[in-house]
């Protein structure tokens, strides 16, 4: 790809950026929390059809996925769950095929009064777009679409097959991405524009979601000593898992990438429910938790460690010793992933990065997870993860930095043109 072609594509991104932001704003405005992603998938399907892509829009059948590597249990109503894939098929086969993927699901907004502006009424100010999902990762998904638009607007068309995939469940199980592989979609590389602050994810954690189900013995609080408080008993188990977290972080010091980070393994009690009445000793308590694992760590082995930790803690508790708690797996059962065997796509993206940003791209050792793991671990497809800068993901006043979004869109466009090849339209 010569300098003139590059410049025409870069200029096209600049020209289309206002429209890109408008589309991003419309996408962010849809409250696509878990189980409510349908309108977002409708929008993506419409955008792909308008551009002439071959669209595959299907309902996900959990039974098709439950035996596949990386599957996590689904607990909510999944009857409306869908995946949308738009495929571009070239007239001339000259490059390498590519999967571009984004997830449209977002985490809950939390108390609305703690947002400066409504989470699903996106606002642009001070060079940023604010809104739930603006950073994680709706701006990246739309950025990938407009990167393809820029190639066309510059007068070119790719010479390799491209699958543009919009998936759900990235925030809780990953089965949306898994469904595309079950459906048969493959490519020479995958690119996921998650917000990475302009760095390339080199290694990322896996995640286990678990639920502690604790029983107590209810009494009137006036006679609390004769009962057993399930909430306090749950806290006893949380303290034990915090000690396990310390052990796992010690183990992480042997990992070639994660040894550079302080405390890469994070345990989080994220949801607690329990009791029925303030003046009754609570008879039950459920705690939903998340803990990370590193690449190469066995999910099954670490599940056993969790169960053993909880059982040992229960044996040292007056009530739980005879009323053992239950451990349920409530979502992610996801392995960590290290980007390997990826020299060719990394070289192509490295050239694009140097043109847009200057210099060499920095690696990111990531203490969260992305859908890249399915492509690399399940099918040996090198899966790059790179995107814009932003902040407050999963928090209040989430935002994406617009200048970084423009740059990441330009880098994607040049990467697609190089990797897939282009010819005059």
Automatic annotation (TrEMBL):
- Specify the protein name: ArgE/DapE family deacylase
State the similarity comment.
Belongs to the peptidase M20A family.
Does the keyword Zinc feature in the UniProt annotation?
yes
- CDD domains, per the entry: M20_ArgE_DapE-like
What organism is this sequence from? Bradyrhizobium barranii
Quote the InterPro entries the UniProt record gives: ArgE/DapE, Bact_exopeptidase_dim_dom, Peptidase_M20, Peptidase_M20_dimer, Peptidase_M20A, YodQ-like
UniProt cofactor(s): Zn(2+); Co(2+)
Give yes or no: UniProt keyword Zinc.
yes
The lineage, from the top, is: Bacteria, Pseudomonadati, Pseudomonadota, Alphaproteobacteria, Hyphomicrobiales
Arranged from A to Z, the UniProt key words for this protein are: Cobalt, Hydrolase, Metal-binding, Zinc
Q: Where is the Peptidase M20 dimerisation domain?
A: 204-316
